[in-house]
Design brief:
single chain; 272 residues; alpha/beta; 5-stranded mixed sheet; 41% helix
């Protein structure tokens, strides 16, 4: 039995996935990235190994992905998170043709083919307004845990419009609305709608094709899922493992390389 792993080092959290020869997830782990990226990559990998009860030498190939992919010092190769999210999304939801990956510091819109290969993509490279960091600013301003933002936002009755496009000023705008007597849930729904509008704009630039799969840490936020669905007028594919999509894609690429090495006639192309 062959085992392969993917380690996704993100700006906020680091994830690891281990799969078997049947492409089933047998181990997974997630931790905060923190200041030491190399340490985070090793720690999350060790946790994933422990969860599935394997010895480290049983995992034949490891691929690093994410912004810190070159810090996966024990890895055999690195592949961009765009390729890995596309591959992982199509593996989990085979009819995926559009992917929106929302992380801590950027949002990516990706169009893929039936094999999970990238056709086109774009990302909000100018600022973090349409990302998890924007939610973090609202969380800090309102002194509400990130995990409570979604459920609280869904209690809205008269949402406000968040006009700022800058995360730096998001906190002051949120506090301004609070000072005007607006309800927290109405402010929060406005924040979610602002992010959803920017994400939908990115998706339309690459072309929204059915089905749309939502990946990244923000998939855990129920209000973000709902607001994006409203903006796109489409149901989103979301899984319990959506947070692990990048590391899953990396593990799938790693398994490809293991299996192709056994049979030289089968050539597998991996895009970096």
């Amino acid at each position: 039995m062959a085992y392969a792993a993917g380690v996704d080092v993100g700006s906020t959290q680091t994830k690891a996935v281990i799969i078997n020869e049947q492409r089933r997830i047998v181990g997974r782990a997630l931790i905060d990235t923190g200041a030491n990226v190399v340490k985070a990559a090793q720690a999350v990998y060790d946790l994933a190994i422990k969860e599935c009860g394997l010895r480290e030498e049983e995992v034949e190939y490891v691929i690093g992905t994410g912004y810190g992919r070159y810090k996966v010092t024990f890895g055999n190769d690195q592949i961009t998170e765009i390729s890995c999210h596309g591959r992982g999304a199509v593996h989990m939801f085979p009819n995926t043709r559009t992917v929106v990956d929302m992380g801590g510091q950027d949002t990516k819109a990706i169009r893929v083919n039936a094999a999970g290969e990238i056709i086109d993509f774009c990302m909000n490279d100018k600022c973090a307004a349409g990302t998890g960091r924007f939610l973090g600013a609202a969380s800090a301003a309102l002194d509400i845990p990130l995990s409570d933002l979604g459920p609280t936002a869904l209690k809205f009755t008269k949402p406000v419009r968040i006009s700022t496009t800058c995360t730096v000023f998001a906190e002051s705008e949120v506090l301004s609305w609070l000072g005007k007597g607006k309800k927290i849930e109405d402010i929060l729904w406005g924040v979610h709608q602002s992010i959803a509008s920017r994400s939908a704009g990115l998706l339309r630039r690459v072309g929204v094709e059915q089905e749309v799969t939502f990946t990244g840490g923000v998939t855990k936020n129920v209000a973000m899922v709902r607001s994006l669905e409203e903006k796109l007028e489409s149901k989103l594919n979301v899984s319990e493992d959506s947070h692990y999509m990048g590391s899953l894609g990396a593990a799938l690429f790693a398994l490809d390389l293991i299996l192709s090495s056994r049979s030289p006639r089968d050539s597998v192309e991996v895009s970096h």
